[in-house]
Amino acid sequence: MTDEEFLFLYLTEDLNKIAAAACEARDRIFQDDLITFIIDRTINYTNICSCQCKFCSFYRNKTDNDAYVIDKATLFGKVMEAMEFGATQLILQGGLNEDLKIDYFEDMFKNLKGRYGLTIHSLTPPELVFIAKISGLSLEETLLRLKKAGLDSLPGGGADILHDTVRNLISPNKINTSTWLEVMRTAHGLGIKSTATMMMGTVETIEQRLAHLRLIRELQDETQGFRAFIIWVYRPGNNGFLVEPLPAEEYLKFLALSRLYLNNFDHIHGSWIGYNEEVAKRTLECGADDLGSLLLRGHLVNPNSDNYRACLESMLELIRSTGRTPALRDTAYEVLRVFD
Fold this sequence. Notes:
Layout (H helix, E strand, L loop, with lengths): L2 H10 L2 H15 L4 E5 L1 E5 L27 H13 L4 E5 L8 H15 L2 E2 L4 H11 L3 H11 L3 E2 L9 H7 L6 H13 L3 E8 L5 H18 L2 E8 L14 H14 L5 E2 L8 H8 L5 E4 L12 H15 L4 E5 L5 E4 L2
Parallel strand pairs: 1-9, 1-10, 2-3, 3-4, 5-6, 6-7, 7-8
Antiparallel strand pairs: 10-11
Helix pairs in contact: 1-10, 2-10, 4-6, 5-6, 5-8, 8-9
């Protein structure tokens, strides 16, 4: 699909027709009827951050009363709780904290890998560039040391919109587009796979979103290192960066066209974030083959709780209601269990 074809379809074609084409494209890749999800946990190791993106309500200054760096007891407790739910993957992300050099992450990853053996799918390109800089290392040296310590793969966070006009407006202190791409190119060259993400719904235009897709498609042609494409939708609140919420129809049409445009990506996620179960269900009717993490959907007290069972059953029922079969996967999208 060319850029011109993408824009023509986006601006003129009915969502139902695009969605049907997207499902056909997905089903050519996957001959079964499985829709996958994963059980994992995201743990924020610090909220102290010098980047201070305008859309972010998470970051704190070092002197704020609620600023923190996670201690080992808390970290290990969160990991063990996740394992009780059957988690196979850890996502460790945090702010750009100048006190946390590479030895902090090496120690953390070695401890986690040695104690629990879970897949460490962690650190976004902005974090990696910052760690390399304050540690006096090259990006390649940083990635090699972290890989040796236990880092398995990279999440695609920090991409936002890969267009510097947008980045200068919403995250002027964050790495630019070419640097984000270079981190991923370097990681892929070292055998470290990753995901690619996009955050829609701030100030970007459809043309700028398309430029983002073009760049990751080109890099995927070069490296074949992206496992999946994941869209997040920005929902305003708590930070003063107020825009009109992105309509669900706009998100779904872009998702369906992404399936058609990203012909070199196998996995396209449907997102829970920002919408509801009905929209999540519709993503499966727009070419998505994965629904991300079960544990992203709430704070679960224990694996035998009614809350957990309800969340799992809700996920399974949602997938079944589209005529598909739910399956649990790991980080590499290998199926661990099929739910009949």
